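Recap for those who missed Tuesday's class. We walked through two folding examples back to back. For each one, the amino acid string is listed first and its predicted structure tokens come directly after. Nothing is annotated here on purpose, so try labeling regions yourself before you check the end of the notes.
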Amino acid sequence: MKSVKKIYGGNKIVAGSVISSTVLLSFIFSSVFFDNEPSIDREAFEAISPYIASGTTRVMTFISFLGKHSFLIPANLLLILVFILLKKKWMAWRVLFVSLSSLGLMSLLKNLLQRQRPPDPLVAGITNFSFPSGHAFMSMAFYGLLIWFTIVSSKNKWQKNFLIIFFSVLILAIGFSRIYLRVHYATDVLAGLLIGFLWLFACLYLIRKMELRFVNKP
């Protein structure tokens, strides 16, 4: 506990978020794999159904693309290059470690749990398993890392608040787009967001410990 306080300044909000996320994730997991059909999944599709339209579907498809591998892989590589050019090697390591480990963990979970996709998706070409949502997971990892970087580096209060809100809304919008497009259940998306948050926290914690060890090394 002391090491967490040393690295994160004893932030009670972060600690509370980690604990509450773990509890909620446990509840979602038990609901999905023991109750078979959580009511939230059915109710989410029923609530969205009256608003499905071709124009909205195009918008949601674009938003969904911002959480897709074909967008996030180049975005991660570009971010790593930027940090290397700025001589911020530990930030570059953070991006590399978070992106690769998140991709590996997401693939592992999908293949272990093997939940089938919802029927009647609005887009074609979806072939892998459903739980957790990869878009939600990877979006939380990438844009969440940008939120963290904004918090620790931005000196301008208004700029900091704008970027935090922007990236937070984008993460939620990407998650919602996956439910709207019927390629994920609501519980898939919620689990992806929660796992992504917890994994991002764990990665930042580990990298920070490594950084402190190397920086303070005699």
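Example two. Treat it independently of the first, because the proteins are unrelated.
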Amino acid sequence: MSQSPLTRSMNLRRSVLSVPAINPRALEKTHQLDCDTVIFDLEDSVAPEKKAEARENLAAFLQGKPLEGKERIIRINGLDTNWGRADMELVSALEPDAVLLPKVNEPQDVMSVSDLLADADAPDELRIWAMIETPRGILNAAAIAEAGRTAGSRLDCLVVGLNDLRKETGVLPQPGRQYLVPWLMQVILAVRAYGLCAIDSVFNDFKDIDGFDTECAEARAMGFDGKMLIHPAQIEPANRHFGPDASAIAEAEAIMKAFADPATDGLNVINVDGRMIERLHLVQAETLVHKARLIAERQKPKGQTAN
């Protein structure tokens, strides 16, 4: 059964930092970083001769001090490579929050990993994320997202990978990504139709904070939930752009207050400050306010809770 587009996960995914599992120092640093999600990468950032060492590093790290307050995602190598099966054995042993699949081209790519997790008796909470980074992946984004809503699929999120997509299509890396926007919006339509989450691609020049800031604003306007990052310097701008601002929170609270009035019982459309507001907007307002509360909880010192 398909889910409503508004029932996707309420986890914070504003800043999704990719960290090479081959780098123990980078792994340890994640404890102090204010990102929402960490992708522990066994794929692109790890040389072929270092794959086993990266798995060992990651096992030692995740079995040590818990990574509190952040989603833990492991990006594996494809199952068609020499390392994919060993990566999946590690996923089953460590039970992260999700496994990120590279170069997902069709629904069966997701279902194959779903079957492996089921065979390993992995908990239902262990989800699947899918990298959409090939022409076939973009063309099949809707089918992949739809299959993700079938029983047992575990799919939660699509992550756009533009470096590989540019390489395979010949589209040049230009500010504004004007020739890529239609493909990005295809992914947004797919996730919104089937209640998933969408994460925008990395910005390669981590020293160009102004350029990154602009791209975050553009991605937020397109409807992305967050952005995949390659450097800690990118965390603050991502959190700022993909989090709700004060005016949006105030508007959402006003909508919730209006619908809480007994006089609105049974009404699907009401007047709020001269605007016609539907109950659909109430669901959106509740989602936004809940997200703001999650952020406030994150910012409180340990032992305190947000009001």
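Answers for example two:
The CA atoms of residues 268 and 294 lie 28 Å apart.
The first strand starts at residue 15 and ends at 20.
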